[in-house]
Design goal:
By secondary structure, the chain is of the alpha+beta class. Helices cover about 35% and strands about 15% of the residues.
């Protein structure tokens, strides 16, 4: 109930509150991570340490040292919030904050524990990031761009971002017009390595 009130309290142009939680119950790793988030305009986060109008507040009852906690957050943000775009405009004050209070009594110290914590945190961040995109100002669709067969992860992200931020691709999606050429054109100008002869959409 308190989470729901807090999620509603931070809303600005959001149409719906955004909140979620995950629970891990493994031997030696029993903890919860919860989060609330706001944002629907100026959504193209470029969060990098230190994390800088999208706001996300995460809490966990796990006991985990600051360095691995920060590392888990940086990695989770890299593959979730930093890959979301609604309008291509990055706000000057985007922020993701993670607090750990150790109330569960579970101390995350092993490699397996760190992996479980990181996976749970990434799952939560991915859900919240999609919630932000789904509630984007003027958004009528939620689209996920998956790039397969790229030479590097950077190339995949470059191509996906060019496609997702292309006004021509967005108009085709809004108009329900399957104009695959616009998608290939965006990928082609992204700077990613692309072979037109073998590319498929």
């Amino acid at each position: 109930e308190a989470d729901a009130r807090a999620a509603a309290a931070i809303m600005t142009t959001d149409l719906v509150p955004k909140l979620a939680a995950v629970e891990v119950d493994q031997p030696g790793a029993r903890f919860r991570i919860g989060g609330i988030c706001k944002g629907s305009g100026m959504i193209a986060p470029r969060l990098a340490p230190p994390h800088a109008t999208m706001l996300c507040f995460l809490t966990t009852d796990a006991a985990i040292a600051p360095a691995p906690l920060r590392q888990a957050l940086v990695e989770a943000v890299r593959v979730t919030f930093n890959r979301v775009t609604v309008d291509g405009d990055t706000s000057t004050n985007d922020m993701v904050l993670l607090l750990a209070n150790g109330a569960s009594g579970t101390h995350i110290q092993s490699e397996e524990g760190f992996a479980l914590f990181g996976a749970a945190l990434t799952e939560l961040c991915a859900y919240l990031a999609r919630s932000v995109a789904r509630d984007g100002e003027g958004a009528t669709k939620l689209v996920e761009v998956h790039v397969r067969g790229a030479e590097t992860e950077e190339d995949a992200e470059r191509a996906a971002r060019a496609i997702a931020e292309s006004p021509l691709v967005k108009t085709a999606l809004f108009g329900n017009d399957p104009n695959w050429g616009r998608i290939l054109a965006a990928a082609g100008r992204s700077g990613a390595s692309l072979c037109p002869e073998t590319a498929s959409v």
